[in-house]
Each structure stands twice: as C-alpha cells, then as structure tokens.
C-alpha cells in the first residue's frame, strides 16, 4: 500500500506538517509485486508491479530481475547512480528531448516566481531557503533522492526497473488502463483487441515507468553503558542538518559482558529503499510527466546484536 500526503509546511519550508492535518491526504495506491520465473519464451526472471490508483487507473508494469552478486544483498557494491528525469511537458506522441516545451514552461517551473495561481504551495521562498523545493528540483525531482544519499555510507544496492510496455521498455508487455472519464472523447472501438484512440483526453495515463533502489546503509550508533544482554532503542548519528534522508531506529542488544562506562560507537547496517516513478499523463494536447519519488526506511525497529568485538 502506497500513501501520499501533503506535509509541505509553508512556514518552515520543510515537510514537517503533521500528517493528521485536515486535507493532507492526497493519494493511496493498493497493489503488489509478483516474481515470475523464466519460461521457454522469456529467458529471464521478471518482476511485475500490479497497482490500482483509485481515481480510475490500473497498471501492470514489468521488468527483469537484476543479476545477483556475491554481496550480502546480492547487489552492486557502493551507491547507485540516480537517473535524471525531466518534468517539462511535450506534445503528445513526441518523446525526443528537443520536443520538450522548455521556453513555454520556463515561468511556471520557476520556483522563485510568486503568485502562480495553479501552483500549490503558492509561496516557495521558505522551501528555496531550505533547499527542499527549488527550480532544479521541480525540473528533476530525482535530485531529492541524490540529496538523501549525501553523507551516507552505502555499502551496496540492488536496482530494478518496471514499465508498462512502452516502445523503449525492456519487457514489451504489461499495460495501463483508464476509465472513460480519464480517457475522454475517443474514436469508436473497431474490434475486441485494438483499443480506441484517444481524441481529447481529460487525464489519460499513457505509460508508467518505476525504478527502485534497495540499499544497504552503514550507520554510526553511539551505545551508552548497558548491562549484559540489555536492549535499548537508538537512532544513528546522521549527516548535517541539510541532509534530507529519513532516520531509522535500531534496537541494540548489548553483548553478555555489557557496554562499558562511556559507551561505545558501533557500525550498524540497515535497509533503505528509494524509488522514482514517472507516469505520462495526456491532457490539454500535451503529455505531462508526473514524477513521484521518495526515500523510505522501515518504521519497525531494526534489530542488532552486539558481539563485543565491534
């Protein structure tokens, strides 16, 4: 289950508005992942993301299972390279970089411009000062993912991508379906197989691509004096205050001999997931890249048993 809430705080320029604030709910999305073993017509294992967006869109997005390595997670050593995305709209059916309407949308995508009536929040100055919403982030939201990795020690990562079978997809299958209201005016259906062409879409979701990075992060945790086998819940030391990664929590259990006076700094590994999803929405004669991205850590405590050799 994916949920999205508006936690942008106009006063602080941060995402610290309480989730219980009236009207903060934006979106929820039930779904699941499938693991599909290779077959005689498909020589690689695949991953399928099934999702239902409750404003009238469903999708099956597919991709290849990444090659496993000898690392603990089976991933690639070190931090991932986060892709660049571009939210600049373009004419429907024209996907080349030169087709992006950069000049037309230069003002609406400028975080420094106030009183743009179609934008929420209206006043972005506090966010610019905090570095949470900038002109660059509006154009390439994946900058938020890069910022979240600053100062972290990423030991390894596993990356995979799923998409709905658009022409450049690695797995040419899957698909995305919209209710009639979103598709808008359509040509008559010719047969039971060929979908009707969309003439005037209201908000027709044409395609979807999602990329996921599962990361193993090494944190520094300062453990205070503890008796043998006692447990304590702690947060790790995090990079400077400008750092935008969420903070995990660990349940640290002392070794039989305990932790001596003065405490001890230990290294603890935890799991972090980052994702970036782009859905192409068609309306008003244009294709609008709708990008969502986030950095996630478990809400549950991650457990770590000290051995005394740390």
Automatic annotation (TrEMBL):
Q: Where is the sequence biased in composition, kind Polar residues?
A: 1-10
Region annotation Disordered: where it falls in the sequence: 1-25
Q: What is this protein called?
A: Uncharacterized protein
């Amino acid at each position: 289950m994916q949920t999205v809430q508006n936690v942008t705080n106009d006063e602080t320029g941060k995402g610290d508005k309480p989730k219980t604030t009236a009207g903060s709910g934006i979106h929820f999305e039930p779904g699941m992942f499938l693991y599909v073993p290779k077959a005689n017509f498909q020589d690689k294992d695949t991953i399928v993301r099934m999702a239902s967006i409750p404003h009238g869109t469903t999708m099956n997005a597919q991709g290849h299972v990444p090659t496993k390595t000898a690392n603990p997670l089976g991933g690639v050593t070190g931090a991932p390279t986060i892709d660049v995305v571009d939210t600049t709209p373009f004419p429907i059916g024209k996907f080349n970089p030169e087709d992006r309407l950069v000049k037309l949308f230069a003002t609406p995508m400028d975080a420094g411009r106030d009183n743009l009536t179609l934008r929420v929040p209206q006043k972005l100055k506090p966010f610019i000062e905090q570095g949470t919403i900038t002109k660059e982030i509006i154009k390439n939201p994946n900058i938020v993912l890069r910022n979240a990795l600053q100062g972290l020690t990423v030991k390894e990562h596993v990356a995979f991508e799923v998409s709905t079978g658009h022409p450049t997809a690695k797995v040419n299958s899957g698909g995305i379906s919209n209710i009639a209201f979103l598709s808008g005016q359509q040509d008559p259906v010719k047969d039971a197989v060929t979908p009707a062409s969309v003439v005037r879409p209201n908000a027709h979701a044409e395609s979807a691509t999602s990329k996921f990075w599962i990361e193993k992060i090494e944190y520094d945790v300062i453990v205070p004096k503890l008796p043998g086998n006692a447990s304590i819940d702690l947060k790790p030391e995090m990079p400077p205050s400008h750092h935008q990664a969420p903070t995990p929590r660990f349940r640290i259990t002392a070794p039989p001999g305990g932790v001596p006076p003065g405490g001890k700094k230990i290294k603890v590994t935890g799991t972090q997931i980052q994702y970036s999803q782009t859905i192409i929405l068609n309306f008003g004669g244009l294709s609008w890249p709708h990008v969502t991205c986030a950095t996630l850590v478990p809400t549950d405590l991650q457990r770590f048993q000290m051995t005394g050799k740390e």
